[in-house]
Amino acid sequence: MSKAVFPPEAVGLRAAAIEAMRQAYAPYSRLAVGAAILATSGEIFAGCNVENAAFPVGLCAEATALGALVTRLGGTRVRAALVIVEGPEKAWPCGACRQRLWEFALADTVVYATTLAGEWSSRPLVQLLPLGFGPHNLKTSE
Ligand SMILES: [Zn+2]
Bridge partners of 104? Predict the structure, then answer.
């Protein structure tokens, strides 16, 4: 699925993610990452990685994009997410971000991974986090 025509829903996501990626604070990894999330409302929220000298404190681009989404819309659902990197290889969300996305996902939420050169792939989130732990696991019976 590389170099094929981008799906229409991913075009706006890609543009937003590229703009966010250009703001990345990545002095340690030197890998700028941008992410964009399509809410069910149709709005797009973007984020970039924010590294920190205390490495575990850093934030992934997906996390900052989700923070923007929740700040604006609360706990809305995510229709699609896209991750773009400056490097030559596509990068999928890390394990923690797959879990973060899962919290707001629909059954058919799609994740795109792309590069500036235009390579891209997509996968259903459920394929990236099979048997994920989610809000349904914490519901108490009444
Ligand atoms: Zn991550």
Answer: none
| Alpha-carbon gap, residue 100 to 6, rounded angstroms | 25
> Residue ranges per domain, the chain?
8-128
Which member of 43, 62, 89, 103 is catalytic?
A: 62
Q: How far is the CA of 141 from the centre of ligand 1 (A)?
A: 32
Strand partners, 46: 36
| Alpha carbon 1 to chain centroid, angstroms | 19
For 58-112, write each residue's pLDDT tens digit: 999 999 999 999 999 998 999 999 999 998 999 999 999 999 999 999 999 999 9
Q: For the domain 8-128, what is the CATH superfamily, name and number?
A: Cytidine Deaminase, domain 2 (3.40.140.10)
Are 114 and 90 within 8 A, CB to CB? yes
Residues in contact with 76: Cβ distance below 8 Å, sequence separation at least 6, in sequence order: 39, 40, 41, 69, 70, 104
How far does the centroid of ligand 1 lie from the alpha carbon of residue 129, in Å? 13
Q: Amino acid identity of 34?
A: G
Tell me whether residue 51 is one of the annotated catalytic residues. Answer: no
